[in-house]
Amino acid sequence: MSFAMDLLLLATSWAHVLLAPYTKVEESFNLHATHDVLMYGVGRNNLHKFDHNTFSGAVPRTFIGSILLAWLTSPVAYVASQWGLLSTKLDLQLAGLILSQHSAHNVLTFLIVRLVLATLNATGLMLVRRAVCRRFGRPTGLMYVLLMCSQFHLPFWMGRTLPNMFALFPVNLAFYALYDRAPQSQYPARRSADVAFALLTFTAVVLRSEVVLLLAPLAIQALLLRRISFMRLIKIGFLSGMLSIVLSVTVDSYMWNQWPLWPEMYGVYFNVYQGKSSDWGTSPVHAYFLSHLPKLLLGSLPLAVLGAMSDNRVRVLMYPPVLFIALISCLGHKEWRFIIYVVPLFNIAAARGAWWMVSRRKGGLFGRMMFLAAMGILALNCAITIVSTCASMANYPGGSALVTFNDQYADQHAVHVHISNLAAQTGASLFLQSHSPPYIPSMSAPATNDWVYNKTESLSPRDLTTSSPLTHLIAESSVEFTRTGRWKLVDSVQGFSRWQWNLPRGGIAKVLEVPLHQWLSVLEMETNDQLYILERVK
Ligand SMILES: *[C@@H]1O[C@H](CO)[C@@H](O)[C@H](O)[C@H]1NC(C)=O
């Protein structure tokens, strides 16, 4: 049973990676950092080749998550390549099935990077699951897993290289250390509390500074409930804080060639103190509670309220995350990913609420209605997740375009292709530039590997056309190029545009006449041409 629950968590995280393999611009710093560490290593001689030298982003970010991910990926990629050689490149074909045959070389590594991260975060959730089973009983553990897997955001993102998804793992380890205890026990083991606060301090210092706002209420609660002494907390925080600062400053100053650099502190200075994050837009104070949290949690939100009402242990568990959201609501710029860490805790509360409802199924009409309502919430979660996943699968036209392109010209030499901004932002990552070095040492390179993938920004159609070395374009429009007579349109790539209700006219009565098997087509996805593949006319 425990094994099945863990497998479900893992399978969900892998399914999202394989269904929507490409990545977007938010993920690209860490993805490209991981790519560069994998391909070039971290030696001084190759640092100038790293992508962040050209595309540095608004603020420097830490390399530590990416370096660790690359180091974890490389033995897996090595084993995969050896195993592939033995079994007639089955692994490449696996990547080929999902993406494409010719792009498979680097693409396999890319999939492994994402699968490794997904597995890591799934492991964090499995540990929390163990804690839930121990403290609240197995049925609540099962509800926790079902709610977790039926949601969209966290499972979809946990295999994506956002800095927040690197932070999610140590935060979940800390939750495990704090909450894995006997049903009625008040205190975590002393050692566990130490580990939890050390991990949270490390995460806040090195990976994501907003975690400090979660650390503070957890620490205050631990002090009030006498789970840790004040002196001990100060000692742990100071020690792990200092070590983390030294680690981040050493590694990141070296990688960015800027001394001294502590990226998270720089981020706080830039975004909070100088207020630059407001340039990205501000949201009202209540946005986290009224808009982001419902989106992240779906049906878990009402269930969590029920869980908190029905069990005092849940209330105690929920004060820190609720306080965290209240604190972070004071910052003007709000994004769902800043509060992603509390989703597992809310799901624990929701699982308790769901089990309260489900366990009443034998108690008469009210009980049966409670049972049905709980099942209905789960079904609704699944429906929303399926719709969101379908839209997301079609939402990476840049990735699809580049893979199509690689396939189409796989045998051609000296291709010089320009990748437009939209393409670069919607999936055309370095990993997909498969006909151009670098290659991971343990993987074989494809036959044609002399291409140039050109991402130079803000070039006009004129720049791209006259006296330029480009042979192909992946562009955002086609007419401006084709009408010059110098380019011909080869292919166009579709992307998600919107959902369209396909309801029959004539009111509710007509809707009810729709035969059951046609219900699936009531909601239809609309796509439109978003990118064009063009070839220079010779
Ligand atoms: C990319 O294309 C631009 C515009 O044609 C050109 O000036 C530049 O040299 C190209 N970059 C590389 C690396 O070839």
TrEMBL record:
InterPro entries: GPI_mannosylTrfase. One of its GO terms (biological process) is protein N-linked glycosylation. Its main location: endoplasmic reticulum. Pathway: Protein modification; protein glycosylation. It is an enzyme of class 2 (transferase). The chain crosses the membrane at residues 107-128, 195-224, 236-256, 287-309, 316-332, 338-358, 370-394. It comes from the Eukaryota. It catalyses: an alpha-D-Man-(1->2)-alpha-D-Man-(1->2)-alpha-D-Man-(1->3)-[alpha-D-Man-(1->2)-alpha-D-Man-(1->3)-alpha-D-Man-(1->6)]-beta-D-Man-(1->4)-beta-D-GlcNAc-(1->4)-alpha-D-GlcNAc-diphospho-di-trans,poly-cis-dolichol + a di-trans,poly-cis-dolichyl beta-D-mannosyl phosphate = an alpha-D-Man-(1->2)-alpha-D-Man-(1->2)-alpha-D-Man-(1->3)-[alpha-D-Man-(1->2)-alpha-D-Man-(1->3)-[alpha-D-Man-(1->6)]-alpha-D-Man-(1->6)]-beta-D-Man-(1->4)-beta-D-GlcNAc-(1->4)-alpha-D-GlcNAc-diphospho-di-trans,poly-cis-dolichol + a di-trans,poly-cis-dolichyl phosphate + H(+). Residues 1-19 form the signal peptide. Its EC number is 2.4.1.-. Pfam families: Glyco_transf_22. One of its GO terms (cellular component) is endoplasmic reticulum membrane. It is a multi-pass membrane protein. Keywords: Endoplasmic reticulum, Glycosyltransferase, Membrane, Signal, Transferase, Transmembrane, Transmembrane helix. It is found in: Endoplasmic reticulum membrane. GO terms for molecular function: dol-P-Man:Man(7)GlcNAc(2)-PP-Dol alpha-1,6-mannosyltransferase activity. PANTHER family: DOL-P-MAN:MAN(7)GLCNAC(2)-PP-DOL ALPHA-1,6-MANNOSYLTRANSFERASE, GLYCOSYLTRANSFERASE. Mannosyltransferase that operates in the biosynthetic pathway of dolichol-linked oligosaccharides, the glycan precursors employed in protein asparagine (N)-glycosylation. The assembly of dolichol-linked oligosaccharides begins on the cytosolic side of the endoplasmic reticulum membrane and finishes in its lumen. The sequential addition of sugars to dolichol pyrophosphate produces dolichol-linked oligosaccharides containing fourteen sugars, including two GlcNAcs, nine mannoses and three glucoses. Belongs to the glycosyltransferase 22 family. This is Mannosyltransferase. It comes from Suillus plorans.
